[in-house]
Amino acid sequence: MKQNKVSKRVTATILSMSLLTVMAGAAIAPALGIIKNHFSSASEMLVQLIVSMPALFIIITNILFLQFSRRVSTRTIATTGLLLYVAAGAGCFFVDNIYILLLMRAVLGISVGLIMPLSTGLLAYYFPPEEQARLMGLSAAMNQMGGVVATLLAGILATVQWNYAFLVYLIGLIAVVMVWLWLPDAQLGASNKHGVPFHPRQLLKFHPSVTGMLLLMILFFIFPTNFAIIASKQTALSSNAITMIMVGLDVVAFFVGLAFGGLMHRFRMIIKYFAPLCFLLGYASYINGSLLMVLIGSMLVGIATGVGVPYLNTIASIKGGRDSVSTVMPLLSAALYLGQFVSPLIVMPMSKGLFGDDITGPYKVGCILSVVFLLQVWATRHFQSLPPQKD
Question: Can you say whether residue 243 is alpha, beta or left, with left for phi > 0 and alpha for psi between -120 and 50 degrees?
């Protein structure tokens, strides 16, 4: 019984970090228009960097994560990352210079780069393979719930004043307390002999999951970067209704994440195809433009995300074993945020080049990339098959 209580506390502590990671960019997105009005003399690019800056520094920190894990204990890494998260995130409340604001957002990216590998890798470190599908599903669900909570809270706080939106990062204090109380201390990374997680041998071993995560994130971010603009032109929906649909997608992904362990057990042989097929059908539904098809499309994209992220994390964590936190998880984290960063840089030129001024061009590009993702999953199916569970 005592061991069960400890395990639940450890699980809750790790999942509390999963709740925070998506908030790096998503938390401020609803307030971006208000922030733009405040910094009216700043260029559009500088304002957009407020959202995208953390992703770049998350990737850089992930590259160096193994070096941290070799020298610093788990609890120290988590505590450092979380304190930086709160200080850099909520600290923007006191800043009224956009360049200092961007510097703070870069520090926020460093903090998430420290937290992100722990939020999934520690599940592989502390729990056996037969429990990881359920736990990775819970981690993805908490990630989605963090997006919902952050989007709603930041939107409400921004109506008070632009800088109030940054106070949403104070949620990180809850995770700080949980880490201090319950996270076991461990020294990670010592058994990784390749020096960095981006060593060619590591990339070769884990390339199906890493490439899959990159494609999945490129596909997913077609939705948040285009949906509001396209839906307002396609439908008579108000901005509030569009926001609720966007939040609803995160809610769908949350419940799919909760159910992921059961889905993995029931659809063991075919679940690898769920994400690319749901993306394909979802973006094809958006092209129609009717309210019903927009709702169906949003549900399908939510399912794709809710299944795809925990599936790739589960496969990678089982293949990486207890060393996942210092080997494959930094790779997956970097791929996740790289996909977020490059999605508009890939999708918009393709849309213009292939479909001209068609407002649904990004969705059509989404269909094309979904087929690429489907082919990638099929081509690497032997690498992405879940090994038999232990009795």
Answer: alpha
Closest CA to 264 of 132, 119, 126: 132
Show Cβ contacts of residue 181 under 8 Å, excluding neighbours closer than 6 positions: 9, 13
Quote the CA–CA distance of 67 and 53 in Å, as a whole number: 23
- What's the CA gap between 65 and 186, in Å, rounded? 15
* Per-residue pLDDT, 203: 64
How does pLDDT run across 122-169, given as a tens digit for each residue? Answer: 888 888 888 888 889 999 999 888 888 887 888 788 888 989 989 999
Q: Which two tokens stand for residue 242?
A: 């569009």
CA distance 32 to 224: 13
Region of 238 on the Ramachandran plot (φ > 0 left; ψ -120 to 50 alpha; else beta): beta
- Residue 197 has φ and ψ, to the nearest 5°, of -65, -15
Nearest to 23 by CA among 123, 111, 91, 103: 111
